[in-house]
Design goal:
The structure is a homodimer.
Chain A: H1 2-23, H2 29-41, E1 45-46, H3 47-56, H4 63-75, E2 79-82, E3 90-93, E4 100-105, E5 111-115, H5 117-129, E6 132-145
Parallel strand pairs in A: 4-6
Antiparallel strand pairs in A: 1-3, 2-3, 4-5
The first copy, chain A, binds a DNA duplex through helix 4.
DNA sequence: CTCCTTGCAAAGCCTTTGCATTTAC
DNA sequence: GTAAATGCAAAGGCTTTGCAAGGAG
């Protein structure tokens, strides 16, 4: 698994470098840092979490740059935006995790994931039918954990709105 | 179609009334107004659009009440929250439109919809497997219109971020 | 050398909150 | 009559923007 993430991170980085070159944009260390943070964590982070993690690692990045870079990565379809019901955007890597969805419990706020082998194909088929070029997609399911013992997670930042 | 929407609006309203009764909450005219606005429009509106539309109709509702009510309707799974990449939440009716998804063009900002007969069943199956009780779901696909002539839509509020 | 990018701080926008008033039941 | 809901305005929190300084190509 660790191997796999590292592989996708490298792949994302090299894709990013060619995108940048073809668009006449610059590959700054800040941009690479943001890309790596999203890819290595493998979780759904919000802009502030990315900012804090990078600052903790000693990167002197600013919030403005984090937001700018996330916009850029989103436009290039290297990260996807997801709405977990917290009234602010979360970001997630695209490469290597296309076929999954999020369950958001409206009672305890917990976010869990599920993979589906069908999902990817289905979205691709729908895009083809509707003349749409697929960049990224996100599927959120809101509801409640059925396992009431598991439904206890509470943390300020992670609770459903 | 108009007949169908009206039917779903009535169904939503009566469901809403029983929910309210069972929870000991009150059916105020403001709450009914918000519910009807979302159901009758049939589109994905944001909180401010709902507020403006109701004000234009002469309803003296406040923004605070619109937000409170949308929270309530979301918790009751009568409306769903969707993220169309505009950094603020849009709302959509749940009853009668479960099996559809949104295409968001990152170039022109246009949002279009597609229905899928498989989608609903697939999400239900995944919920069952993962011990999750389905309230509502939303699927957004970000990418670009392939039909370049159609890809021209530009309007401040509706552009992709 | 150019002009893209960064960082800071301020501004902007959406959403929530506190409190007095109103209202559904 | 009483607890719940509304409305206003202010506060809060996430995101964007303007501009000077810095840096990649």
């Amino acid at each position: 698994m660790k191997q796999y993430i590292s592989e996708q991170t490298t792949r994302a980085e090299s894709l990013f470098r060619s995108f940048m070159k073809s668009e006449g944009l610059r590959c700054t260390s800040e941009r690479i840092d943001v890309l790596q943070e999203v890819y290595r964590s493998g979780a759904h982070l919000d802009a502030d979490e990315i900012y804090s993690r990078l600052r903790e690692k000693g990167t002197g990045i600013s919030r403005a740059t984090v937001y700018h870079t996330l916009d850029l990565l989103f436009r290039l379809n290297l990260v996807s935006r997801i709405d977990l019901g917290h009234h602010h955007t979360h970001y997630e890597r695209v490469l290597g995790v296309a076929n999954h969805l999020h369950f958001v419990c409206q009672r305890c706020g917990k976010v869990s994931e599920a993979a589906s082998s069908q999902l990817d194909g289905m979205v691709e088929k729908l895009c083809a039918t509707h003349e749409f070029s697929l960049g990224s997609f996100s599927l959120q399911v809101f509801g409640e954990c059925l396992d009431r013992e598991a439904c206890t997670f509470r943390a300020g930042k992670e609770n459903a709105g």
